[in-house]
Amino acid sequence: MKTMLKNDTFLRACRREPVDYTPVWIMRQAGRYMKEYRAIRKKVDFLTMCKTPELVTEATLLPVEILGVDAAILFSDILIPVEAMGLEVRFTEKRGPVFSNPVRSESGLEGLSILNLPESVERMPFIKESIRLILEALDNRLPLIGFSGAPFTLATYMIEGETSKNFTWIKRIMYDNPAFLHKLLDKITTTIINYLEMQINAGVHAVQLFDTWAGSLGPVDYQEFALPYTERVIKGIKETGCPIILFANGVSSILEFMGNSGADVAGLDWRIDIGDARKRVGNMVALQGNLDPCVLYARPPVIKKYAKNILDRYGSGPGHIFNLGHGILPDTPVEHAKALIEIVHEESGKR
Ligand code: CP3
């Protein structure tokens, strides 16, 4: 049994229970836009940082202390379990994550490990230890969110070998050799279920599935190559009772599927009106989002106008978690992120 949290507003909103104000956190809230983060990163590379529980804890706590968010999120990356499945990944300054051997052949596919529960812990011991240290440091102040990439998004990285614009490799394989992609998605799905179960066992209070690239699929392909695997992950961890947030970038054409997926919360990008989204799926899931990350380049009065508009468009009643529609950008002024948190708290608390 988990002990009571001092601030459980975020968890209440996930369950669509009444709250005193709209909870808010920011995707990628611990990142390069903070000088304290850059100071840690000066000493170690990104992967080392992700694998050092003391540094993970320090990074995870930064936005809690500096911004006053309503939830902490484990500092890690969606590609950590992919590395544990046997692919070598490097994080580069210019190109972001790069895999030296993208999975494009039968032998590459055969060589990948499926991680079951004990292997998930053994190959990523720093995850369990990081969660333990973070929970200790949080001291029941706030919930901690764990996460994983969703199967299709992870398959995209594994096949493309880096962040892709056109998804030429994965789509070529998807249309030409769908059985290959299904086999890869199957391996990833089993691994992710065990990876998330490990995080939940370690004590995270909610989990988010990042299906960042699912929006690159048309609805027919989404239903064949993304949705069934995401649903399998959700089913696989559902009985833990841990709230599940499903985020996708480009949600407009897949929103009803997300609402029906078994997730508790649908994470929206900024290209959709949250009021319309609520009409479409608001009786099935809570909604998270959906401020354009670029609004945070503007002065606080402008941020206020846009944040207020999202709160107004969502309307009254529970089930909204305020967030950006995608990760915060590295050149965002910290003061603006801080202002956003204050604005959301003030404006929503007034209602
Ligand atoms: O939200 C959080 O604060 C938790 C930490 C977190 C990171 N990445 C830290 C990170 C989370 C949840 C992610 C998820 C992630 N990682 C996604 C899904 C969400 C999204 O943004 O769409 C994806 C696609 C990745 C893969 C990834 N990791 C890319 C493409 C990059 C390079 C681009 C970039 O922003 O640098 C990373 C690196 C990364 N992940 C950084 C951080 C803080 C920057 C690393 C650095 O310090 O150099």
Beta-strand residue percentage: 5-15%
Give the assembly state of these chains: single chain
State the CATH topology: TIM Barrel
| The number of domains | 1
Globally, the shape reads: globular
Terminal-residue CA separation: 33 Å
Percentage of residues in helical conformation? 40-55%
Number of helices: 16
CATH architectural type: Alpha-Beta Barrel
The CATH class assignment is: Alpha Beta
What's the average pLDDT? 97
H/E topology pattern: HHHHEHEEHHHEHHHEHEHEHEHEH
Q: Any ligands, ions or cofactors bound here, and which? A: coproporphyrinogen III
Question: Can you tell me about this structure?
Answer:
The chain is of the alpha/beta class and about 350 residues long. It has a single domain (about 10-350), classed as TIM Barrel (Alpha-Beta Barrel). The chain has 16 helices and nine strands. The strands form two sheets. It has a seven-stranded parallel sheet. The protein has a two-stranded antiparallel ribbon with strand order 2-3. Strand 8, helix 15 (about 300-315) and strand 9 (about 320-325) form a beta-alpha-beta unit. Helix 4 runs parallel beside helix 8 (about 125-140) and helix 9 (about 150-160) packs across helix 11. The longest helix has 25 residues, at about 180-200. The structure holds coproporphyrinogen III. Coproporphyrinogen III binds near residues 29, 31, 32, 77 and 79.
